[in-house]
């Protein structure tokens, strides 16, 4: 059942008033493919705009906190933790993992997905002058803990 639709099929914000406050966590990922020399420039700290990973990490954290402003019908959440990690992935990519936590009445999947996506977009923005052919790919939920639907983890 699509919970964002009412009985007449109109979009609405899900009422979570009666839901219990529980610990919730979500982990999402994104990957960015690029030219090997672009990745080498990032890893070596030689990018003219500065520390690309640090800026992308901050952008991801900020994005998680603004998810309800970006995604219609998302509840504004009081996140208790947002972590965004970026690492070289082979010779031509960056792997981004975002983890969001809270004690609340609704899950944090959208916040984790938004954090990973915006970190990837920021990486693209910072490097587009040297590599316009970068590809953002594999944005997906890896794990969700808490709530009525329980534990979800992507199969290996």
What does this structure look like?
- This protein is an alpha+beta fold and 156 residues long.
- 29% of the residues lie in helices and 29% in strands.
- It has four helices and five strands, in the order βαααββαββ.
- The chain has helices at residues 36-43, 52-65, 67-70, 109-127; strands at residues 22-33, 81-88, 93-104, 135-145, 152-153.
- The protein has a five-stranded antiparallel beta sheet with strand order 2-3-1-4-5.
- A hairpin with a 6-residue loop joins β4 and β5.
- α2 (52-65) runs antiparallel to α4 (109-127).
- The longest helix is centred in the last third of the chain and has 19 residues, at 109-127.
- The chain is elongated and about 55 Å long.
- The model has no long low-confidence stretch (mean pLDDT 92).
> Per DSSP, what share of the residues sits in E-state strands of 2 or more residues?
25-35%
- Find the structural class using helix and strand composition: alpha+beta
- Summed up, the helix count is 4
The outline comes out as: elongated
The stretches of 5 or more residues where confidence is low (pLDDT under 50) are: none
- Mean pLDDT level: 92
Helix content: 25-40%
Helix and strand string, N-terminal first? EHHHEEHEE
Counting DSSP E segments of at least 2 residues, the number of strands comes to 5
What is the radius of gyration?
A: 17 Å
Going across the biggest sheet, name each strand in turn.
2-3-1-4-5
Distance between the termini: 27 Å
